[in-house]
What we know:
This protein is of the alpha/beta class.
Amino acid sequence: MKILHVTTSLGVGGAEHILFLVASKQSREGSRVSVLGLCDDGFYAERLRERGVSVLTVFPKNLTHNRLHVLASLILHWPIALFKIWRWKPQVIHTWMYVADLWGGTIGRILRIPVVWGIFSGSTNPRFYSRPTYLLLRVCGFLSRSIPTVIVSCSAYGRR
């Protein structure tokens, strides 16, 4: 099976560690696994490569990570990522965290590839999020009935 994981970050974090474990196991079991990071290489990138997982990134190296640059990069690099994913022809796209859910999920929907959304939060209370993140959470909630084929959550509260 050809599996593409789309993630916001490959840096040190809980969701990133789970992605590392899942992708490594899938690769060991014979699946062709690739991770598309919406950022430059992070802590887990080389570790994934050592385990036979292909790692691609969307952002150019040394991108300043302020919100304007990130937004501009996502918009400008959309066609490139769409083409890379179309050319690689994964059988399933598994997204990790809200930006990747929206970004990778939309591409998967356009290309008619089944999408699995990963939800790694247990609360939708706005006091726990910045305004842009909370807005993104709400947009993903609205689109959750039309984009993903399956949603995987780390908690019962997150599922609700």
